[in-house]
Design a protein that fits this description.
Radius of gyration: 19 Å
Strand content: 25-35%
Number of helices: 9
Order of helices and strands: EHEEHEEEEHEHEHEHEHHEHEE
Shape: globular
Mean pLDDT: 86
Structural class: alpha/beta
Length: 324
């Protein structure tokens, strides 16, 4: 089968937003390649090691490829995606010197090739992510394994925001909490929260592809329904009473986590505050460094107390507590 490969040369800062545009445009897959330079600061706190540079992409730059079926109206799709990218400057996102490429490729050239680069990854003291097609033996009983097949959804743990969120969850989860994961993607954070001791996680996403992926991965880890409930919804719909049944959790909850772009986080901070019990914790991640101050101020304005600010490369996660 032939596919249209649409390549966008942009910045690492714009990767998550543009990737989302491609998914929403109906991409059958999205690949991301960031700079392979060793000059960038890398986290080695859990024993990670890095090969020599794997590409010649300049530091801070990235290549995003979206794959669309041969029969797709690709010219129309590209025009719509370009228009949305052109609006990113309004949100303070630097897209750099954009370049676009389009070519036709065979499915065998890309559909499974990326799997060769997705290996077991230890992301925290207790959590290791293992792709379903790889063999791996835990180093100790304390090491918890997240089985993952991300498919077309976001979240493999290799991006700084996902790894950062998992490490932050490890600090916050004490055991027995009910958790809401907003924008769950592949379900990786929901699974990690359960492995760390959460009683039940309600995983929400508006993307039906993500909902399907999160359900599959929850099932792979033996958690679907009895420990993780996946819903195609947003937080506001839950608070409005439109969907109060079969949530697996009782509002208000003790922990909410959202690994989403800052621009989206800013839209529902008040909703998060309402959905948390007094003393509850909100982990807000996916925030690029240039949005740190505005998100921090918005959290404070909504009544949150900032307990911790965690960082990985140029990305930030806040641990904010609702006042008792």
């Amino acid at each position: 089968m032939l596919w249209h490969e649409f390549t966008i040369h942009t910045t690492e800062e714009a990767v998550e937003m543009i990737s989302n545009f491609l998914h929403e445009a109906g991409a059958g897959g999205v690949s991301i390649e960031e700079s392979g330079t060793l000059n960038k600061k890398r986290d080695t706190s859990f024993g990670q090691w890095y090969e020599m540079p794997l590409n010649d992409i300049p530091e801070g730059q990235a290549e995003i490829k979206g794959y669309f079926s041969e029969e797709s109206p690709v010219e129309q799709i590209i025009a719509e995606v370009k228009e949305r990218i052109g609006q990113l400057h309004e949100y303070g996102i630097d897209t750099g010197e954009l370049r676009y490429e389009l070519k036709t490729v065979n499915e065998d050239d890309w559909a499974t090739a990326w799997k060769a680069y997705f290996k077991p990854l230890k992301v925290s003291e207790r959590l290791t992510i293992k792709p379903t097609w790889e063999d791996y033996t835990p180093a100790s009983e304390a090491e918890k394994i997240i089985e993952l097949d991300p498919g077309m959804a976001f979240g493999t743990g290799t991006h700084p925001t996902t790894a950062l969120c998992l490490r932050t969850l490890e600090k916050v989860i004490r055991g027995g909490e009910e958790v809401i994961d907003v924008g769950t993607g592949s379900g990786i954070l929901a699974i990690g929260a359960v492995l760390l001791g959460a009683k039940h996680v309600l995983a929400l996403d508006l993307d039906p592809v993500a909902v399907s992926s999160a359900k599959e991965n929850s099932q792979l880890n033996g958690m679907l329904d009895h420990q993780i409930t996946v819903k195609e919804s947003d937080l506001l719909s839950l608070l409005s009473g439109d969907q109060r049944e079969d949530l697996g959790v009782t509002l208000p909850v003790q922990v909410i986590v959202a690994n989403i772009l800052a621009e989206i986080i800013l839209l529902f901070i008040d909703d998060v505050y309402r959905a948390l019990e007094p003393g509850g914790v909100y982990i807000a991640s996916g925030i690029y460094k240039n949005k740190e101050d505005v998100v921090q101020q918005a959290l404070k304005d909504s009544g949150f107390e900032i307990e911790d600010v965690c960082r990985d490369e140029d990305w930030v996660a806040f641990v904010a507590r609702k006042r008792s």
